[in-house]
Q: What sequence folds into this?
């Protein structure tokens, strides 16, 4: 039997619904809740960190990271260590920091997400980072790479600027996008014409441009880096 009229269920209730089988079936609340719980179980989301370090830091004592003062007992996502096997989540201490309990061998899984509460201005406030290192992972030995996957403060992670000083023929450009595979484009400032330059990745937060055949005139070149 089919109903073609609008049914007003105010103060009414449909009870004893069986579990849905086909795509158009009504679904009881218990089945909906079970499906939501199952979906959430596939997401490896870690507890929120107060801030994230994108440059090498000393893993000891209270300090200021990306404009945020951290104190004993607070969680920090460490993502920019020179020795990248040191990256991970830590609990701040007055002395040496210890890795967080969810940073253990069986908890540090590829694809895990790490929410960050604060950062310099709006740069990292409310951002979401993901561990992109593939398995197998041995905490303390494997190099760990974290990439910012969501930033509510901007629609695109992008930086632009100019370079050239009339003296140098190679340059380091710091972009702080925490991306070892950024998209880079260069332009002539005088005409806006796109040009090709040799460049290499210096770190997840910087590139090296050049070496040019001669010194680049002051602010003669422009760049745009998207990460």
A:
């Amino acid at each position: 039997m089919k109903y073609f009229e609008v049914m007003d269920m105010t103060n009414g209730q449909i009870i004893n619904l069986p579990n849905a089988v086909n795509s158009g079936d009504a679904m009881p609340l218990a089945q909906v809740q079970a499906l939501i719980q199952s979906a959430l179980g596939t997401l490896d989301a870690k507890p929120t960190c107060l801030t994230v370090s994108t440059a090498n830091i000393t893993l000891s004592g209270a300090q200021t990271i990306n404009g945020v003062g951290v104190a004993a007992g607070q969680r920090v996502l460490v993502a920019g260590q020179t020795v990248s096997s040191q990256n991970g989540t830590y609990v701040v201490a007055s002395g040496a920091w210890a890795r967080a309990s969810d940073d253990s061998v069986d908890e540090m899984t590829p694809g895990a997400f790490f929410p960050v509460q604060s950062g310099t201005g709006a740069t990292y406030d409310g951002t979401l980072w993901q561990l992109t290192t593939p398995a197998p992972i041995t905490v303390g030995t494997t190099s760990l790479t974290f990439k910012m996957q969501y930033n509510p403060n901007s629609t695109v992670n992008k930086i632009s600027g100019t370079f050239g000083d009339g003296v140098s023929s190679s340059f380091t450009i710091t972009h702080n996008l925490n991306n070892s595979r950024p998209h880079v484009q260069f332009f002539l400032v005088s005409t806006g014409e796109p040009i090709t330059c040799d460049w290499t990745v210096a770190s997840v937060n910087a590139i090296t441009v050049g070496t040019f055949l001669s010194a680049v005139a002051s602010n003669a070149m422009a760049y745009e880096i998207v990460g």
The radius of gyration is 25 Å. The helical segments are 29-41.
